[in-house]
Amino acid sequence: MLKLKYTRNLLTALAIILLFTACTEKQLDELVQQSEEETTDVAETEPVQPEKPAAVALPGLPADVAGYTQWLKLNAAPIPPAPGGDPHNGTKNVYVNQTRDTIAPNGTQQFPYPDGSIVVKDATRPGKDYIGLIAIMRKKDGVNPDHNDWEFIEYVRNAADAEFRVIAKDGICWGCHARVKDIDYVFTELE
Ligand code: HEC
Fold first, then answer.
1. Could you tell me if 26 and 67 lie in one domain?
2. In this structure, which of 25, 138, 144, 171 has its CB flanked by the most CB atoms within 10 Å?
3. Which of 111, 121, 155 to mutate to test ligand 1, by most ligand atoms within 8 A of the CB atom?
4. Which of 185, 128, 188 is nearest to 156 (CA)?
5. Which atom of ligand 1 is nearest to the CA of 175?
6. Are 185 and 148 spatial neighbours (Cβ–Cβ below 8 Å)?
7. Domain range enclosing 93
8. Is the residue at 191 inside a domain?
9. What are phi and psi of 177, to 5 degrees?
10. Protein residue with least CA distance to atom 32, ligand 1
11. How many whole angstroms from 74 Cα to the centroid of ligand 1?
């Protein structure tokens, strides 16, 4: 009699354990499913595109000028080709990686440019609809004290999907740019 009762109790206990396990398993399943659904929901409701896509340098250009068209533009209107021969032939815009407040506190441009400045000029060649020339001036402390520590380099390409390649640098550039030595070798002033 006693033995029977014991067995029955044991069975009941087993049944409860089984039920409980089944239950938790089911609940777990549900939880997993639910969280999976939630993950899909989140993915679907995320904004499709960030406001500004990450800047990528034009092919063949160094990474530090990626997104230069978002920088401060020195010229107000595009600079047309210079009559009678243009050293950087085309319609040009000039950008710098500084803020207006930094280079023109109180509204008047100050010289020299701070160390680390990068000036980028792009030119669309006459009759073309893509940028065919990129000229860069980089100010690096100590690299060229004779020319206010500017490094000069110029790149060109002849097709909209072509890579830029270096065409000239430094020595070729100094002669002309020395004409505007008093405004730190940069012809284009902030407008
Ligand atoms: C024959 C003269 C001449 C030579 C050589 C020359 N430049 Fe220029 N550069 C100019 C003039 C003028 C401007 C003013 C904007 C314009 O009209 O294109 C200028 C503008 C620039 C600018 C935009 C900032 C500014 O000064 O207005 C950069 C950057 C630049 N040149 C880089 C170079 C590099 C790099 C070289 C050498 C590979 C070079 N330049 C050689 C005359 C010259």
1. no
2. 138
3. 121
4. 128
5. 5
6. yes
7. 63-183
8. no
9. -70, -20
10. 135
11. 14
Helix (H, G, I), strand (E, B) or coil at 140: coil
Q: Looking at the 3D structure of the chain, how many domains does it have?
A: 2
Asked if residue 29 is part of any domain, the answer here is yes
Q: 74 and 37: one domain?
A: no
Closest ligand 1 atom, CA of 120?
29
Before 112, cis peptide (omega within 30)? yes
Per-residue pLDDT of the chain (191 residues; tens, 9 = 90+): 555 566 566 555 545 444 445 545 555 455 445 555 555 555 555 666 666 667 788 999 999 999 999 999 999 999 999 888 877 889 999 999 999 999 999 999 999 999 999 999 999 999 999 999 999 999 999 999 999 999 999 999 999 999 999 999 999 999 999 999 999 999 999 99
Smallest CA separation from ligand 1 atom 3, residue: 176
152 in any annotated domain: yes
Amino acid at 176: C
Please report, as a single letter, which amino acid is at residue 88: H
Element (H, E) at 166: strand 165-169
Are 76 and 135 found together in one domain? Answer: yes
- Largest Cα separation within the chain, whole Å, is 120
Q: DSSP of 22-75, one letter per residue?
A: HHHHHHHHHHHHHHHHHHHHHHHHS-SS-SSPPP-PPTTS-GGGTTGGGSEES-
Q: Distance between CA atoms of 150 and 170, rounded to whole angstroms?
A: 9
